[in-house]
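Hi Q.,

Before the meeting this afternoon, I wanted you to have the zinc ion prediction in hand. No need to reply - just skim if you have a minute. The sequence and ligand are here:
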Amino acid sequence: MKEQIETLIQLQRIEKERAALQTQIAEIPRREQALDEQLGAAEDEITRKKERIDEVRKQYRAFESDVRANQDRIDKSRARLGTIKTNKEYQAMLKEIEELRKKNSKIEDEMLDFLDQIEAAEGEAASEKEKHDRLKAETDGLKKILREEADDASRRMGQLDLHWRQVSEAIDPALLKRFQMVREKVGPVTLAPVSNAVCGGCNLNIPHQLFNELQRFDSLKYCPHCQRLIFWEKPLEENNG
Ligand SMILES: [Zn+2]
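Predicted structure with the ligand bound:
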């Protein structure tokens, strides 16, 4: 019986490692997604900067065409100056030309300001792009590691499954069935060690009589509190001695 219990403990250890690997594998897509989201945010930032640049450039081009249109009107008016007969009309046209010139001068000042804005936005976009490229390289590296992690974990799980089958063959089928039935009820910790009459599954004291029986290793008992299968765990000093 003692050997059977030890084999069950071994089986439970395999199951525990397998469950941990399964959790690790299950978390990989979430970790990949987090990396993708981070990279996506960096890409969005670049797009926003580019949109800003386009917007300012578009406004700059609109100013350019305003200036051109005003200049055309100035040129035409100047050409007509010589054909004007009355002084009053002449003065009116000079006034119009002067106003257009002022308007253009004001627009050109604004255009200089816009050129500064474009230059600044291009600088920001370039540094965002650099940041993004660094992050992309980092993300690719981390994803590769995650894939390797997943492969390693799957491989290890395959080994554990094989090992589980081999180990379980040494267990009496009725006992194995009992073990599996208890596991259905209590979860992954099916078999709990008892030391100093305390159940390792629920941390409650088990009756003295039961503790004495456990120490004989002649049968597998149930914890009266949590219904786990329990076995006696020898104190360390006795193991070493
Ligand atoms: Zn218990």
